[in-house]
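Minutes, project check-in

Agenda point 3 was the complex the collaborators sent over. CS summarized: two entities, 920 residues total, and the question is how they sit relative to each other. Sequences were read into the notes so everyone works from the same version.
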Amino acid sequence: MDRLDDDSNFDRRNLCVNVEESTSGGALHVDPGPILPRTERNFFKYFLDGSIRTYYLGEQLENGRSYPLIATEVASAAILRSEDGRQSVAGFKRKIALLIPPAPPMLPETVHELMEVREQMMSTTSRFKLEVVKLDAHERQEGVDLRTSLLGKARAEMHTVEHDLAHQIKRSEEEWLVLDGAIRKHEFLGLKETIGLAKSFSRNPIFRTQDRGIIDVVALVSELREGQRTAVFKHESVADSESREGDRARKEVAFWYTRLRSGKGLEGPLQGVVKIDYHLEKDRLDSTDLELVNRITRALAAERYVSPYPTPRWHAHIYPIFTAENYIKASLLSPLVFRGYFGAR
Amino acid sequence: MSKGLEEKTKTQQVIGKTTATENQPNTVDTFSFWLSPETLVNPFDFVTVDHLMSTRTIGVVRDMKTITDAPSHLSNYVSSEFGNVMIAPNTNRITTTIAEAAVLANFGEDSDLEINMPVENDRPVRFATASEIGLALGAEDLRIPVSMGLIEMSNGAKIPIKVDGRYLLGPEAAHLNVSGISGLATKTSYLMFLVQSILKAYGSDKIGVVIFNVKQQDLLHIDHEAPDLQTEDLEIYKALDIEPKPFQNVTYFLPRGEDGEADSEHEPRNSKIYCYSLRDCVTEGRNNLDLLFSQVRDPDYTIASILEHLREQNWPVHFGRDITRNDEVLRRADQEVETWEDLRLYDYYPNNIRSGSRGKFRRHLQRLTSSNLFVPTRKHEVYLGEEIKKLRGGQVYVIDIFKVSPSEERAAFVVGDVLRSIEEMYSEGSDSWPEKVILLVDELNKYAPRGTQPAPVAQQVIEIARTGRSRGAVLFGAEQFKSEVHEQVYENAATHIIGRTGSSELSSHPYSFLDKETKSNVTRLEKGELVLVHAAFRQPVKVVFPRPSYMRQEAVVEEPSGPESLRPNGAFSAS
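CS then shared the predicted structure for the full assembly.
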């Protein structure tokens, strides 16, 4: 899902430029300094992840046309890591939604019937509230079926829950938050001292470099050594006339890559590499910005320990995010229970 | 949830919650619970879980495991940068300790309600209270409550544990066996503590006690105050409601030594010297020679046939002819066989007993009786078989066999003779005989060793173990290794006390009633800690007990000037 989200950041414009060229002389690979372990400074204190589970409930037939009925449970959890390295849950949010397509094709009678389902569920359990979420016409993706669009809507709902939770966490100064995945929506830009950390990322971006011309992401990171980072990049400036929703995130998010792991047990140059998104409005970074970028990179290098091995993508996974994932998985409703709410009709 | 239970749950600290998984479900007999961080729990702690229909399930912690979310050890290896021992984790792995508890009982306010169902998931777990433990161990039904020691819990609670005397001394069940490594298991100290506890519970006039002393002067000062009781000992005595005072009305029996003096490490004032003449052992209708030859190897039953012949005779027997040596007449025909020497010279056996067998018998008789313990005729000394029949309620007899012990055969003879005399006493019947007699026998493996063909002394011990419960003769036996004791002896014991024991011994058959977690805990017991397995308890429990309230060997240094000159040195070393 990280990569899917990141792909959307590079769907139209994928040319990226080095924004620290003037400060660090155009080097593509930078040694940020020694790792910054928690015992020295508990730099990243909060870790947030989201999860989604969708259920295909069946097809609704109306006037000779059909459309899918999809329900989803989305949730987000934030983990707090205390000074002694222990973890606890800092927050949890959940949303259960029935996703419905735009009218047409849905008839008003059907909408009414769905409202009855919602009432029935709320009478069955007071713990959960069913929300009916309508896919707006402009959200219907061109060239894809309705079901795929509804799943995209579910994903957007998850990001909303993540965003809401991230805003709810009361953080003091210097208590950084790590979001799992790329920064996808401009709402996330309002979060201070926050990075997006993607363990899988888009292969779409291409990079304009001083010495090597245009290179792709594999070429950029293949020579990256453990603990090093790449130069910081941003999308090439977007003309105001072409801007649309999502472009603010492209304009204001700087990103770079760092290699958490190399060597043993890895296959391919992208394994062990993570992408960091960070809100940075400037188009040219000064030495203060770079000091912060380096500190973030050094602190991330320390997150290798402990490792969630042997989970998939363990080489690029950090443990507190893995904990958040597991907490959400353990908190989501059992599929049997979930379907039971709808099967009661 | 009832109001009372609700309040209890609120006021007592919850230390964890029950957990049941697909692979590790809770069962009728066990349940698991995770522990909240920083909670200290140890094996043998008692815990309470709220159960169905306002009932509570009481469990005893048997084992604990700490788990993490690492699916394999390799995960941790990789987490340390593929084996870099210098790596410190930036985030601690999720970890918790899972305790496994064995179910002791389930009860509620409605006492008739019986629930034998596994406890459910996510139920709060608390340390059990004294009353809950009491209920779980059946304390409300005790007719004769006997203190067995103190349960010490990790939350600091110290709870007296009692059992019904009817399950210790009969008639419901009887006999007790203590085993464990010498010194660390504190077997004798515990048995002596328990005897004191029983005397208090029953009232001393109902109980007679016969104790064999097998270690120096270990039990030769039991009527003297203990000089070295510590505050914690006094607190335990107070908690158990037992007055820490020495034994009273004690008579010591010491083996005869040279010139008729006591052959003992210490000679208490209230002591008598015992020895054996032939007439003590062989009279009309009574023959204890089999006990004397009990441990003589006799694969061809030649000695057995001689003993059988002697048993069949009408005693006293007489020489059938003159016995001469070098023309000297040693014994005249028709002279009565009165002494051990007479018996050695006696030769009036049927022809089917060959001369070789007779010679073997004589040689063994010579060897066994060539001790100051065996005399032609007793003078001021006493015969234990007669003395034992004079035992009355409230009296304690201590029979010192330490100096006899180097010859296991003679020590076994003394023990066997006493046990047989008790059996005879029961057969004869006597109103003055105590209601219950406790026989405290240490080193039981010497007298009733493992084997299919028990020797006469072993048969005597087995007989007490088999039939003593109904008669009132109760065996409190102790040994280092239960596996070396005859199974009929330990299998007849309704109560087992186990001190620190090695794992190889614990893997033997006699300990098969213990689960592997309890066995593992037994190997780690500290000095003074014992595991109690009782017929009325569903699970083993761990107890501690105070130092004995009499003067032990370690607490005295005998002055060279004479007996009874004692002074404490204050050292504690329970034996």
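Noted in discussion: The two ends of chain A are 33 Å apart (CA to CA).
Follow-up: revisit at the next meeting once the mutant set is ready.
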